[in-house]
Amino acid sequence: MAGSRRVIALVLLGLAAGPGASWAQAQTPPEDDPFAGFDEEWDDPWATEDQGLRWTGFVEGGLGARNSDVAGLDRLTLGELRVRAETRYDHADFQVEFKGDLVWDEVIDSLETELRELSVAFRPLASVDAKVGRQVLTWGTGDLLFLNDLFPKDFISFFAGRDEDYLKLPSDAARVSVFTDLVNLDLAWMPRFEPDGYLYGERFAFWNPAAGAVVAPQPPRRADTPDTYELALRLFRTVGPIEYAAYGYTGRWKQPVGLDAQGLPRFPRLRTFGASVRRPLYRGLFNAEFAWYDSRDDRDGTDPATPNSELRLLAGYEQELVRNLTAGTQFYVERIQHHDRLLANSPDPARERERWRTVVTLRLTHRALQEKLTSSLFVFASPTESDYYLRPSVAWRRDDRWLFTGGFNVFGGSEEHTFFGQLEDNSNAWLRVRYHY
Amino acid sequence: MKYLQLIGLSIFALALSPGARAEPLTDAKEIVARANLASYYNGDDGRSEARMAIEDAQGRRQLRQFTILRRDHADGGDQDFMVFFSRPSDVRGTVFLVAKHVDRDDDRWLYLPGLDLVRRISAGDKRTSFVGSNFFYEDVSGRHPEADEHTLVETTAEHYVLESRPKDPGAVEFDRYVTRIDRNTFLPMRTEYYDDRDRVYRLMEVLAVEEIGGYPTVTRSRMSAPLDGGNTLMEFRYIEYDVGLPADIFSERYLRSPPVDWLRRSGE
Fold first, then answer.
1. Are B205 and B233 in contact (CB under 8 A)?
2. In angstroms, what CA-CA distances link A322 with A280, A371, A391, B126, B131?
3. pLDDT by residue (tens digit) across B228-262?
4. How many CA atoms lie within 13 A of A171 on its CB side?
5. Does B58 touch chain A (CB under 8 A)?
6. Residue B207 forms contact with A (CB below 8 Å)
7. How far A393 CA lies from chain B's nearest CA (Å)?
8. In the prediction, which pLDDT does A26 show?
9. What CATH number is given to the structural domain containing B123?
10. Measured on CA atoms in the order A255, B111, A82, A428, is the torsion positive or negative?
11. What percent of chain A has pLDDT over 90?
12. Which of A334, A352, A385, B54, by CA, is between 20 and 30 Å from A85?
């Protein structure tokens, strides 16, 4: 383990030291043609499909560590060497897309393969698009807040400082989109329920109500995933500059927020519907969204082992403040439907959520050096739970090949059972070096 | 008799090159309006492949390659643009959709394939770098002719020389700019942007013009930053006009699934 850690550190060093050396070679194309070696197809107007598959991707090393000791957990929160490969095959009648990662993950001490995408897209009718296979799905108007998007998210990656792309987990899905003059429809059917990448004891500690403390359960154990389908739909339409959408979902809570008869975590049934609007306003963009979470296993709200139904509301506004500096803010609330019954039936009413949970977010993004240096700060703060989560980061895109990124995940709060407060011991710093090929 | 022949020849010559011999225009507004049409509104729609070589002050070079689809609602009026990036690999599959409006802020969307996310971008400053290059968004989609006060300062044998000053100086980074517009094609061939100390800090030069489908078209141009160093060379190829792009191409549907038939070069 210590040996392979040294290897990762060496590779990181190598990656960091590399650009100068390799750039010297890349920098000597003939002076009169800045595009030399860029695209061999460009100069051949007759070049057609038979070029074979074009592979692209990156190699990335990442390191991250927490700032406090947690029993049973390593200091290392991110320690990996990742190789991404992507390709695409365009046929006149269909397109195949592949994205896959091979990762040495030092934290769990294993070599993993992750298939991010393997899908076939085709057009069965002129007004219908279909995409079948493993794919990443996203909709909704929130910025890092998801109301009607119940596609799986990987919070472990998010908290560990992996690229924001990894917040979204792929789904094995059949997606059908129907486009009409009146309204468009997206329908996604997932034959097998895919939960979030939730905290379960690997890498991060969290509030454990049974233990009455913040712990990382050892050995880490995931809840059993029910063998059921998920169905998500969206109706959407853009009228001039205004985007309207309505959503529905039937499946499960994406995290094991319920307990079964043996007291083991389970995924209770969930149905949601909602709507959103996004439009220009003043000198920026305004969005609003709501979602009703119908907790089908506890509609009365009397079962302490199953979450209550909830209403979720979001309003957001984004604007460029000055040249190259953009600010976005969101106001988000969750309201528990039968809060009185929740308290009446709870084994630990003092630590139950308030009826209302509010979260305010702020995102600041600054671009400099012709967009090569991007600094960003994302703040989540909950006035009702007195907790927060800060995500400052800096990304330096040195050139088309090299990307250096670093940042912090800082959690805190006055109580240890709240949403962000429970994550306080997981605060960490991370650094990534990526080489695109 | 000889005189008659000469006169006949002269008339013939005049007919062949009406622009060169025609009475020069004197109205700066009209020249700018025609330059706007010649630069951004050829045909009713168009497709083109483009690439940029971005060189910073240290001589480091980056490249961008993309395909642009454009459709006009009216000449000199609203337009839709779609930009499909194919290079470098970290932006491959990224698509940029712009609904350009003459009377209000543009609507802009960005599709990020890694997240399958259609992100709306706030209208914002159009005078910021277009994908890391020395060109601004406004250079690519066109600056509103009404945004500046234009004066015709000189008419040479080949060019109209115009000086333009912003009506809202607080909204832009330049103090004034001087444009040399070709009298025949109405294409701006060289634009110098002056800062408040009267230095040229931004310079656009057209390096090649080709006639495509009857429209003189800039196929190679350079935007440079003489004070800071660094420049961007932009090339267009495989340009076609009036290809018959359907209006619905410029929508969320085609952000997620690119219209491959329209992205392909003709004959392929």
1. no
2. 17, 15, 22, 12, 18
3. 999 999 999 999 999 999 999 999 999 999 998 88
4. 30
5. no
6. no
7. 19
8. 39
9. 2.50.20.10
10. negative
11. 78
12. B54
A57-88 tens-digit pLDDT = 999 999 999 999 998 899 999 999 999 999 99
Determine, yes or no, domain membership for B13: no
- B2 belongs to a structural domain: no
State the smallest CA–CA distance between residue A348 and chain B in angstroms. Answer: 39
Comparing CB atoms, the residue among B60, B122, B173 nearest residue A318 is B122
Residue B81 lies in a domain: yes
Query: A2-11+53-436, what's its fold?
Result: Porin (2.40.160)
CB pairs under 8 A between A and B: 130
Closest Cα partner for A203 from A432, A413, A426?
A: A426
- Domain that includes residue B129, residue range: 25-263
Q: What is the pLDDT of residues B6-42, one digit of tens each?
A: 555 454 444 445 444 468 999 999 999 999 999 999 9
> Quick one: pLDDT at residue A51?
56
Alpha carbon A405 to its chain centroid, in Å, reads: 17
| Other C-beta atoms lying within 10 Å of the C-beta of residue B25 | 16
Residue contact B105–A164, C-beta within 8 A: no
DSSP 3-state of A172? strand
Q: Which of B116, B228, B231 to mutate to test the interface with A (most CBs of A within 10 A)?
A: B116
Taking the domains of chain A in order of start, what are their residue ranges?
Answer: 2-11+53-436
Name the residue among B68, B204, B201 with its Cα closest to residue B131: B68
| Number of structural domains in chain B | 1
pLDDT band at A27 (very low <50, low <70, confident <90, very high): very low
Whether B199 is covered by a domain: the verdict is yes
Residue A168 DSSP label: B
**Would you say B102 and B147 are in contact if contact means Cβ atoms under 8 Å apart?**
no
Please check whether residue B138 touches A, CB under 8 A.
Answer: no
